[in-house]
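dumping this here so i dont lose it
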């Protein structure tokens, strides 16, 4: 079959007990021999064998098949197509694993809200383990594909940077993180002419694709953090070099490609994305915020009249049966127990009838529920993109030197997200993440002690007028103005910040702040005047 559907079957790939699975690499070799590797399903089946999480034999056979394909295949197009398939398979497997884990973490009430009558049992541990990816194999396959590729495409380099950081936290000191950083240096130097495309791909995966799995998103953040550390290590001289060599390397760095990526291109993309998402958040209404907080699959709004009628009928029936027995004090013990059993049985019937009325909604309610589901999905996409943009900013500022160089570009957009005065601020995750990102930027002012990052952030927020939602007659704009506001009479945060600046300039460290630090702290000085 030229379609290749005989090799890529979800049941075949995911079930280790299937006796055909060990023979799948041989089928793939046959497909390669007969020119079927160009089929997308064949490529996905091959990579699924290589990344099989519970069968090392199948994984080893798939790796041998992949090595043979790369050795005798077309080196100009085959590695790129396999790289695209690898990224798709990894993202799908990670998304599937996350869905399994999230389904197990739901409470009984939450599961019943999704499926009131057709409640499925939680996924078994074996099924969750089967969807888990061997991250080391993902990184090995990505490195092997990069060695066989003879073209430095920027888009592919961006995907390679993400795939080689799958499962890595980006922390310094680890051997895996250092290996990923060395690999990133080689890839960036090979794709120097396409560094803009590589940076745009990296930013797109980290920010502009909310449907991407959390594992791939974390890999993109780890890649951004490692590239920033790489840029700082290439830009500045090591400690054992003398001052003259340091000055020469600062003026003419040996490899400025990584530095340009993390200081010029990436901050501009992140700032534009954050400004766009902040403008959209400013237009959200209280109804949108309440709809976002409401549980999915349940009609949001006024209660259905049927439920009220049911409750009234139950109360009337209880009252009727109580009066028919002459009140609670006039009945015998046996009659009271019999009456209680009847009341409980009737309440159970009414409750079952009420649960069935949730499914049998009117056509108008079904339309409302469909519209609410669509709107809730849009809100989740917007909020996820906003939060992921802030996380990418924090990952970029993992290195102090890089973070300080990006203050002028990232500072205004992050400050804008912290001075909004709109219904969106009632979403706790947005407030916590935007505040934490501002603290991270304040820590990049290396002239001040790290303990002053919180006072600096609070003083910056108090130095601006809050941004209000646009009125009906106001035209929509993508740029939100930042207007300096006079500080209150008592502002300990501003006093601590200005005092620390004075101490820094008086003790003879450098006598002046750096350009980025001064630009970041200038609103506090202006607001204090």
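and the seq i came up w/
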């Amino acid at each position: 079959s030229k379609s290749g559907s005989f090799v890529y079957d979800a049941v075949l790939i995911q079930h280790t007990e299937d006796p055909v699975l060990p023979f799948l690499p041989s089928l793939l070799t046959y497909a390669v021999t007969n020119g079927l590797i160009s089929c997308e399903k064949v490529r996905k089946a091959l990579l699924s064998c290589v990344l099989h999480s519970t069968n090392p034999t199948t994984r080893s056979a798939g790796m041998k098949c992949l090595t043979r394909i790369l050795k005798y295949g077309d080196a100009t197009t085959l590695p790129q197509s396999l790289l695209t398939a690898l990224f798709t398979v990894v993202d799908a497997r990670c998304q599937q694993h996350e869905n399994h884990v999230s389904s197990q973490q739901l409470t009984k009430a939450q599961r019943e809200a999704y499926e009131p009558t057709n409640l499925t049992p939680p996924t078994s541990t074996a099924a969750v383990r089967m969807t888990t990816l061997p991250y080391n194999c993902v990184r090995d396959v990505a490195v092997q594909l990069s060695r066989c590729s003879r073209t430095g495409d920027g888009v592919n380099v961006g995907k390679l940077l993400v795939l080689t950081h799958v499962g890595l936290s980006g922390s310094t000191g680890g051997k895996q993180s250092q290996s990923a950083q060395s690999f990133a240096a080689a890839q960036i130097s090979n794709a120097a002419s396409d560094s803009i495309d590589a940076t745009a791909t990296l930013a797109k995966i980290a920010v502009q694709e909310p449907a991407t799995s959390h594992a791939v998103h974390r890999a993109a953040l780890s890649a951004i953090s490692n590239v920033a550390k790489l840029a700082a290590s290439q830009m500045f001289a090591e400690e054992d070099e003398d001052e003259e060599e340091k000055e020469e390397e600062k003026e003419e760095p040996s490899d400025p490609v990584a530095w340009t990526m993390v200081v010029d291109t990436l901050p501009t993309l992140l700032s534009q994305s954050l400004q766009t998402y902040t403008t959209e958040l400013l237009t959200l209404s209280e109804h949108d915020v309440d709809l976002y907080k409401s549980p999915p699959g349940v009609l949001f709004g006024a209660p259905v009249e049927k439920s009220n009628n049911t409750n009234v009928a139950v109360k009337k029936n209880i009252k009727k049966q109580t009066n028919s027995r002459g009140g609670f004090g006039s009945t015998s013990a046996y009659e009271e127990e019999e009456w209680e059993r009847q009341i409980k049985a009737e309440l159970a019937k009414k409750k079952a009838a009420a649960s069935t009325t949730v499914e049998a909604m009117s056509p108008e309610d079904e339309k409302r529920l469909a519209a609410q589901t669509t709107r809730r999905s849009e809100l989740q996409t917007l909020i996820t993109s906003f939060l992921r943009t802030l996380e990418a900013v924090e990952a970029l500022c993992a290195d102090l030197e890089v973070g300080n160089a990006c203050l002028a570009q990232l500072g205004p957009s992050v400050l804008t997200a912290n001075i909004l005065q709109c219904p969106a601020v009632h979403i706790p995750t947005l407030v916590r993440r935007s505040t934490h990102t501002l603290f991270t930027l304040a820590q990049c002012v290396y002239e001040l002690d790290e303990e002053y990052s919180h006072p600096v952030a609070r003083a910056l927020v108090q130095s601006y007028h809050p941004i209000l939602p646009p009125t009906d007659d106001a035209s929509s704009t993508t740029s939100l103005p930042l207007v300096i506001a006079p500080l209150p009479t008592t502002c300990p945060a501003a006093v601590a910040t200005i005092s620390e600046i004075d101490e820094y300039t008086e003790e003879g460290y450098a006598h002046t702040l750096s350009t980025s630090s001064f630009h970041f702290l200038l609103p506090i000085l202006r607001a204090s005047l």
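The chain has a mean pLDDT of 75.
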